[in-house]
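--- STAGE predict ---
source: upstream dedup step, 1 unique chain passed
mode: sequence only
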Amino acid sequence: MDSWIWAVRLTKTRSIASDACRGGHVRVNGIRVKPAHAVRVGDEVRLRHEGRERIVVVSRVISKRVGAAVAAECYVDKSPPPPPREETVTVAVRDRGAGRPTKRERRSIDKLLGRRAAEGRRHPAPPE
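--- STAGE serialize ---
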């Protein structure tokens, strides 16, 4: 199973495919499978990977990794369309090489996230 998932380019590496199988993220005809499970033509494979579920029906069994055009012929994709880009959560990105945020930047980040100033401190303020 893991080698077929990798061969048809549903995952980038075979180790990611086998980890997905071991973690219970791969189902064949509704049943969780192990990496060594044999794939047959007509099987429905459901793979949860990178935040979405891929649903494919096996149309050809291959064991070696092939080009993207040939790999697309080995299955019929019945996955729901990916969510639009607007719905994905954006993550704050710092410029490469900018280093750690300054104290002023940390305070503005805390203010943006709605955290109090005392929550960001490592040590509590001394009692008066």
